[in-house]
Amino acid sequence: MANHRENLLQLSYIRSVTLFGQCLAVIFAIYGLHADLNVWKISSTLGTLAFLNLITYARLFSPWPVTEPEFFTQLIAEMSLYGALLFHMGGATNPFIFLLLVPLIIASATLSKRYVWLIAVMIVAIYSSLLFYYEPILKLSNSHQHRIMELFDIHIVGMWINFLLTVLVITYFIVRMRQSMQQQQDKLEQEREKHIHDQQLLSLATMAAGTAHELGTPLSTMQVLLKELEHEHQHTPDLLEDLQLLYQQTEVCATRLKQMTQSVKEEHSTTQWLPATELIEATLEQLMVQRPDVSQTYTVMGLGEPPYLSCTTSLKQSLLNLINNAADANPKDLQIELDWDQQQTYFRIHDWGPGISLEQSDNLGKPFITTKGKGLGIGLFLTATTLARYDGDVRLYNHPEGGTLTEVTLPIRQKND
């Protein structure tokens, strides 16, 4: 679909340039060639064109969309006023007669076939009528004869200037129109990628919901059987200890499934705002409970009061996923930094693992792509998706000193945003 609002804006720019050029041409014809022109009629035509341009500017500030028939009407009005102006300035003998081609070329690039043919027929009719009906610029008389060669030279120069201006105007408009079309194409491509991304996310969410529902039954069965085995092996301390450990693990899994369901419900109803430092500290505390083998150094680099972030379960889980990924590469001596400026909050994780290859860096963030020998390859995909909901971003780099640098960027917002 053509962006007729942008096309109409460019047409108003061209109209302004044409007005300026025609005013200069009229001044030159009157004072340079001493032409006998009807100044009032020419001025009224130029004034009408200027008034049309002002109305067009005012219309572009309105919220209503610019339709194809409206843009066609604008071109018809433009072409008619050009014809009226040329009628008072020599008709087809005026070197600026080719100005009539500008609306046709614009229509050919922006409008459908039927509108282009209508404009083409009207331009031919206007040009043909100007061959016979016009007011001459210079009226020859017996007492005042102009030299034929001098008039011919002036006409040739005028044709050259007209050709140059037409080329400049048409080139400018076509380039801007092509840029507009390219922007629309890029937007459509982004929408297509977003649609594919949403479909992948929906598929993952559906599988996760189904898996969580199906895991409830086997976990309950395992807990019942483990309780029975504990009762039967009361007098076997070593086996009893293992059974109790297994029962605790199944209890953790069942609790985690319940928490996941509950957190999703709560996230849609409540939003808690916390300083970025508290959010990171809470995430690191959760990491230490889950993975006590990880050693890390946490540094706050930002100056002044820390910005507030929307503290949701999904955001904390996303940050935790990134730290876990870094710990999987190398759990020793993770370097974690928190920084911020006036617009952004930065969260960086530097691990001392093997780094990432060029092929892996091109595919990171896509579903089912993993840099580890194990895993499903959906952690980073879900993390990137969650951060995108907060207008954030995550990027992974090979650190110059070795290992991988993971950087999360989140915009700073007010609490009521």
UniProtKB/TrEMBL annotation:
SMART domains: HATPase_c. Its main location: membrane. Keywords: ATP-binding, Cell membrane, Kinase, Membrane, Nucleotide-binding, Phosphoprotein, Transferase, Transmembrane, Transmembrane helix. Its EC number is 2.7.13.3. It is a multi-pass membrane protein. Residues 210-414 form the Histidine kinase domain. PROSITE patterns: HIS_KIN. Pfam families: HATPase_c (PF02518). It comes from the Bacteria. GO terms for molecular function: ATP binding. This is histidine kinase. It comes from Neptuniibacter pectenicola.
